[in-house]
Amino acid sequence: MTQPAHNLDACPPDSSPASSPRSTARTAGRGKMIGESPELLAVLALVDRVARSSCTVLVTGESGTGKEAVVTAIHDASPRKDAPLVTVNCGAIPEQLLESELFGHARGAFTGAHAARQGRVAAADGGTLFLDEVGELPLALQVKLLRLLQQREYSPVGDNRTLKCDIRIVAATNKDLAREVAAGRFREDLFYRLNVIHVELPALRDRLDDVELLAAHFLTLCAQRAGRTDLTGIAPSAVEALRAHDWPGNIRALENAIERAVVLAVGPELTAADLPPQVLAASREKAPATLPALGIDFRAAVEEFENQLILGALERTGWNKQRAAQLLKVNRTTLIEMVKRKGLCA
Ligand SMILES: Nc1ncnc2c1ncn2[C@@H]1O[C@H](COP(=O)(O)OP(=O)(O)OP(=O)(O)O)[C@@H](O)[C@H]1O
Ligand SMILES: [Mg+2]
């Protein structure tokens, strides 16, 4: 299925009441998003343009690529920024509750509905409604969402009044919605209504140039939180290892890896030995033994490489020194002596 082309010109500038007194700075679309890779800069430029309109936006990308961060950036750069950004996680709310969570309900609409209650659509009035994990939306509710998207109209559960709202709708998913449509799990008309502007977040492995910037950013944040003012930076070999990993969990996994390293690091720098085993495993497979343009601290690099191999063998064998020594083809006593001398521990 072909994706509809973006037509930003077809999207009117946002004319919500909140939009009139302010104009939004062109550069506001970055929010708290770090990165200078051409792939991320293209996303930020699109965010910047769409923020000023009231267009529906569909944000896609693998888990942990920053979909929620982009939605927040769109809202914060939009004329609606002083009104609420209300999130509905379509995958986390049980199907029976989702409709009343979205649209509210009348008193007595169902057992336990002792009083009428507003839903999240009403709570988002004047602002942005974020439908997270929209690919999980049950088919029965997809029809009702279509009405909301087309007419900005809805009815609370157990109430036949038609209510109007002024909301901007942004949706996110890590599913391939076109494939969901083909499989009959997602309505095609709803897909096109959501997919007016498509922001696709690149996987971290496809923008490796951002890895070092992001890692440094998370080091500052995590070191502050953990009170590790002694940590000064990330050793080049650790940067190499971070760049060699393919990051299936994307930015969230990188953040977790740095958080863990901050706790484990002896300091003053984070070293490759402080990184999670799965990150080191990838870097070992790629053997990044290239000489950097500015030369290298040979002894430190060799030491680092030895540490990675020793820790990798120990981790793979559950710290069984006999089996780890066999993997490294050294005597058990040699391994024990090296572990002691280098101060390596689990
Ligand atoms: N460009 C970025 N710069 C700095 N931090 C970022 C960036 N992108 C994402 N993050 C951070 O990475 C983490 C994961 O991002 P987010 O929750 O937006 O991902 P997601 O795509 O919504 O993930 P999921 O699919 O699991 O819901 C968050 O802590 C977020 O703040
Ligand atoms: Mg998310």
Radius of gyration from the alpha-carbon trace, in angstroms:
25 Å
> Which of globular, elongated, flat, extended, rod-shaped describes the shape?
elongated
Describe the largest sheet.
Answer: 5 strands, parallel
**CATH level-four homologous superfamily name of the largest domain:** P-loop containing nucleotide triphosphate hydrolases
The CATH topology of the largest domain is given as Rossmann fold
Order of helices and strands: HEHEHHEHEEEHHEHEHHEHHHH
**Class from secondary-structure proportions:** alpha/beta
Low-confidence stretches: 1-5, 18-27
Q: Give the distinct bound molecules.
A: adenosine-5'-triphosphate, magnesium ion
User: Strand-residue fraction?
Assistant: 5-15%
Q: Quick one: how many beta strands?
A: 9
User: What is the count of distinct domains?
Assistant: 2
Number of helices: 14
What do these coordinates show?
The chain is α/β, with parallel strands linked by helices. It folds into two domains: 8-202, Rossmann fold, CATH 3.40.50; 208-342, Helicase, Ruva Protein, domain 3 (Orthogonal Bundle), CATH 1.10.8.60. 44% of the residues lie in helices and 9% in strands. It has helices at 38-51, 67-76, 95-103, 120-123, 139-151, 177-182, 188-194, 209-226, 236-244, 250-264, 277-286, 298-316, 321-328, 332-342; strands spanning 57-60, 85-89, 128-132, 153-154, 163-164, 168-173, 197-200, 233-234, 269-270. The protein has a five-stranded parallel sheet with strand order 2-3-6-1-7. It starts with 37 loop residues before the first helix and ends with a helix. Residues 1-5 and 18-27 have low confidence and may be disordered. It binds adenosine-5'-triphosphate (ATP) and magnesium ion (MG). Magnesium ion (MG) binds at residues 67-68, 132.
